[in-house]
Amino acid sequence: MRRNRSSLTSDLGFLAFLVLIFACIVYIAGSPDHYIQNIIILNVSFILALVTYFTTVTAGLTLNLAFVFGYGFFVVYQTVTQGASIGVDTYFWLIMTPLLTVVLWVFTASTRELQAENERLLKRTNNLAAVDENTDLRNSISFQKDASLFTGISVRYKIPLTLLVVKVKYWNEIRRLIPEEQLSEAVYDVSQLSQSSIRTNDALYLLDKEDATWGLLLFTDREGAKIVIERIKQRLQELNDSEFSGKYKVNLGLKIGAVEYAADTIENPLDFIVQAKKELEYDV
């Protein structure tokens, strides 16, 4: 109902805009002696209306107020210096310019509302999305949900659970060396490397795509996690020698931090990540 009302308002604004444009055409055609002057003022009116569309109606009306004072000063100047009379037609642009601004604002109101709604939906989709669209990996939202489940299983069945946080070394510098179109591909390749280094019952997450950071939840203790770390680094070295150096013109390096879950020291999934990231400082 609200959208139909907004659409009706926009349609009425469009019709009013056409009527005003027709009135401007008739007025300009009926004043051939001031043709150039009227064309200039009409262009100024359109510019003010466009500024209003890209800013706010308040800014547009403020500019229109400045135009009214400027045009009024111009009319007074003509009256004093040239002895021109002030007729009804003098007030045409003083009224028409603000009207064009307001009517265009009403006409485009529905479009602006749709754009705002689209932005809200995109943000909501991004916040609710549990899988990265490029790598098909679960993201930090999935991690928070899964970590609660995994930690519960770990405590209940006394199975050790370790989180590995994997980060590409010098990623900010590498971003400047790799073309933009290859950045997503590099993230995907490292994701595949990590995925191939763990068991099927372990879980891999892309925690931060912009900073190239992954999380691996492993049902193992710290000693078992060390085996996975060595496996990942060995696999990376092999790929650097055979594929990565030629593909990206740089050798990729990884920093890996590991933390074993302990219910008394780790309060929530975010705390789990924070503690694992602290361990990255010791992997140089």
TrEMBL record:
Does the keyword section mention Ribosomal protein? no
Residue ranges annotated as transmembrane are 12-29, 35-54, 61-79, 91-110
What EC class is this? transferase
UniProt domain GGDEF: residue ranges: 129-280
List the Gene Ontology MF annotations in alphabetical order: diguanylate cyclase activity
Q: What is its EC number?
A: 2.7.7.65
Which Pfam families does the record associate with it?
Answer: GGDEF (PF00990)
* Coiled-coil intervals, chain numbering: none
- Asked if Membrane is a keyword of the record, the answer is yes
Note the PROSITE patterns from the entry. Answer: PROKAR_LIPOPROTEIN (PS51257)
Keyword annotations for this protein?
A: Membrane, Nucleotidyltransferase, Transferase, Transmembrane, Transmembrane helix
This protein's name: Diguanylate cyclase domain-containing protein
Q: Which organism is it from?
A: Paenibacillus rhizoplanae
